[in-house]
Amino acid sequence: YIVRGRARHVLVVAAEQMTRALDWTDRATCVLFGDGAGAAVIEAGGENPLAVELSTSPDVETLRVPGLTGSSPYKTAQDRESVLSMNGRRVFKFGVNAICDTVNKLVCDASIAVEDIDHFVFHQANERILSQAVKRLGVPDDRVVRTLRETGNISSACIPLALDRLANTGALHAGDTIALVGFGAGLDVGGYLLRWK
Predict the structure, then answer these.
(1) CA separation (Å) from 56 to 59, 182, 184?
(2) Residue-wise over 20-30: b if at least 16 C-beta within 10 A, else e?
(3) Phi and psi at residue 181, in whole multiples of 5°?
(4) What confidence tens digit (pLDDT) does each residue in 22-34 have?
(5) How far apart (Å, rounded) are the C-alpha atoms in residues 61 and 39?
């Protein structure tokens, strides 16, 4: 990070090339994942972050993203040990719970209500997970950013891309509260609640 006066600036970069790890005959995974990259500069200071939540549930079999063999980022995995595998039902349940539980923990830590959040930027795993989480949280659908139709699931890159989409629509204003929640292989979850400046 870079320290300038009292503020700390952190550059967060997310880049994924999931297509390298796919078995293109496995319709359960190959139609879901794409490649992408995104970055954000986060400044700590003042009231930000309002809350942070990190957790892991050791389960590498529900969503397994193995280490890839070979050195070329453009060459598809050649052996079964380098191919992504996923239990779709378990990932669905985990994803919905991860989003809802993390949002509830963030608002509890920040002493605000879910209704006080202006925008929700969730991991763009699939539309069913997003819709179920939105329904369970009871938040208006128009507060949830969606990029799936244009990008598919680009893994960790989806949150900075969705945040950029939100910032460029004109819907984001100074003072707005944003909840960011991501999850993935591991099974890991990260949440961040901030006030937009």
Answers:
(1) 9, 12, 10
(2) bbbbeeeeebe
(3) -140, 125
(4) 888 888 788 788 8
(5) 29
Which tens digits make up the pLDDT trace of 53-88?
A: 999 887 778 887 766 555 555 555 555 566 778 888
Q: Has domain 2-195 been given CATH number 3.90.1150.10?
A: no
Could you give the CA distance from residue 106 to residue 100 in angstroms, rounded to a whole number? 10
The full length of the chain comes to 197
Query: Buried (b) or exposed (e) across 124-145, using 16+ Cβ within 10 A?
Result: bbbeebbebbbeebebeeebbb
Q: Are 180 and 192 in contact (CB under 8 A)?
A: yes
Show the tokens assigned to 63: 């969503």
b/e burial code for range 102-121 (CB count within 10 A of at least 16 → b): bbebbbeebeeebeebbbbb
Beta strands, E only, 60-150: 63-64, 85-86, 119-122
Give the pTM. Answer: 0.85
Query: How far, in Å, CA of 111 to CA of 139, rounded?
Result: 18
**In angstroms, rounded to a whole number, what is the distance separating the alpha carbons of residues 197 and 76?**
42
**Distance between CA atoms of residues 149 and 151, nearest Å:** 6
Q: Name the residue ranges covered by the structural domains of the chain.
A: 2-195
Q: How far apart are CA 38 and CA 167, in angstroms?
A: 14
